[in-house]
């Protein structure tokens, strides 16, 4: 009798455990990033803030620039506020990886290597890379001439990687102005940067003894990277749709002409 009672109690207990576990509420599915952004009412956008005319501070200290205005326009299309966070180039991507930032809008060029870690939106601008030297430099005329030379650029930027591909030793810097100053004072032989950024610099410093000696043949696609997982797919698609709408209604072109003097968005 005791044995039978024990068996019955064990069966009841097992059924109770099964019933409780079976009725236990399943955890809610992880919300996608776009949903989280809309619920928060803001999108956190990382950029350097020291790279004119893409993203920089004007005389009043306000964060302005081509990327800054494009990011605000995209946020408006998503129906949220744009919250900007400034950081160095490497820190932009470290913050994106860790989830501290939703997106990076900072003239990021689409490359095969970056594509291994990030998904990209539709391109919102197209640029060529310029090889820049002092006006009196006659040793460097092509990208191939960088072999054995010294250049400077933001660490791990597209420009740094390209210079290294051609055999240059690259010194890391934080801003475009610092980069060009190092070329001017002879601390490095050359630098690589966006053609439009160089011409913007020359518009401010027309007497600077600098020149462009070569340009990449094909234009790079400037995109917005997002983390590579299923929770960011809807965000990437929504941003791409916003970019298409801003291109079609002329907003992208107007912002580009304002900061570059020409349309680099087509």
Write the H/E string, N to C: HHEEEHEHEHEEEEHEHEHEEEHH
C-alpha end-to-end distance: 87 Å
Number of helix segments?
10
Radius of gyration: 26 Å
The percent of residues in helical segments reads: 40-55%
- In the CATH classification, which architecture of the largest domain applies? 3-Layer(aba) Sandwich
**Class derived from helix and strand content:** alpha/beta
Pick out the low-confidence regions: 1-28
**Which topology of the largest domain does CATH recognise?**
D-Maltodextrin-Binding Protein, domain 2
For the largest sheet, list the strands in their spatial order: 4-1-5
Sum up the overall morphology in one term.
globular
How many structural domains can be distinguished in the coordinates?
2
**Biggest beta sheet summary:** 3 strands, parallel
Strand content: 15-25%
CATH level 4 superfamily of the largest domain: Periplasmic binding protein-like II
CATH class of the largest domain: Alpha Beta
**Mean pLDDT level:** 90
Strand element count = 14
Structure, explained:
By secondary structure, this protein is an alpha/beta fold. It has 2 domains: 33-126 and 221-260, Periplasmic binding protein-like II (D-Maltodextrin-Binding Protein, domain 2); 129-217, Periplasmic binding protein-like II (D-Maltodextrin-Binding Protein, domain 2). Helices cover 41% and strands 20% of the residues. It has helices spanning 2-23, 33-40, 66-78, 89-98, 112-115, 158-165, 176-184, 195-204, 233-248, 251-260; strands spanning 42-47, 56-57, 63-64, 81-86, 103-104, 118-120, 125-127, 129-134, 150-153, 169-172, 191-194, 210-215, 220-222, 225-227. A 3-stranded parallel sheet has the order 4-1-5, sandwiched between helices. A hairpin with a 5-residue loop joins strand 2 and strand 3. Helix 3 crosses helix 9 and helix 3 (66-78) runs antiparallel to helix 10.
């Amino acid at each position: 009798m005791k044995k039978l009672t024990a068996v019955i109690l064990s069966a009841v207990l097992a059924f109770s455990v099964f019933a409780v576990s079976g009725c236990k509420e399943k955890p809610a599915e992880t919300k996608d990033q776009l949903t989280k952004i809309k619920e928060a009412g803001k999108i956190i956008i990382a950029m350097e803030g020291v790279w004119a005319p893409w993203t920089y501070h004007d005389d009043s200290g306000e964060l302005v620039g081509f990327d800054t205005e494009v990011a605000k326009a995209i946020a408006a299309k998503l129906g949220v506020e744009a919250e900007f966070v400034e950081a160095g180039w490497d820190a932009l991507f470290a913050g994106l990886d860790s989830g501290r930032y939703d997106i990076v809008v900072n003239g990021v060029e689409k490359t095969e290597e970056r594509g291994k870690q990030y998904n990209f939106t539709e391109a919102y601008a197209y640029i060529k890379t310029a090889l820049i030297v002092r006006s009196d430099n006659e040793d460097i005329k092509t990208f191939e001439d960088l072999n054995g030379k010294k250049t400077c650029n933001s660490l791990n930027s597209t420009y740094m990687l390209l210079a290294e591909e051609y055999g240059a030793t690259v010194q890391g810097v934080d801003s475009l102005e610092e980069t060009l100053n190092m070329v001017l004072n002879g601390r490095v032989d050359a630098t690589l940067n966006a053609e439009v950024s160089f011409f913007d610099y020359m518009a401010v410093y027309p007497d600077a003894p600098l020149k462009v000696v070569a340009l990449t043949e094909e234009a790079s696609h400037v995109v917005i990277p997002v983390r590579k997982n299923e929770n960011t797919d809807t965000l990437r698609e929504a941003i791409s749709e916003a970019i298409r709408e801003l291109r079609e209604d002329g907003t992208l072109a107007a912002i580009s002409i304002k900061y570059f003097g020409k349309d680099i968005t087509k």
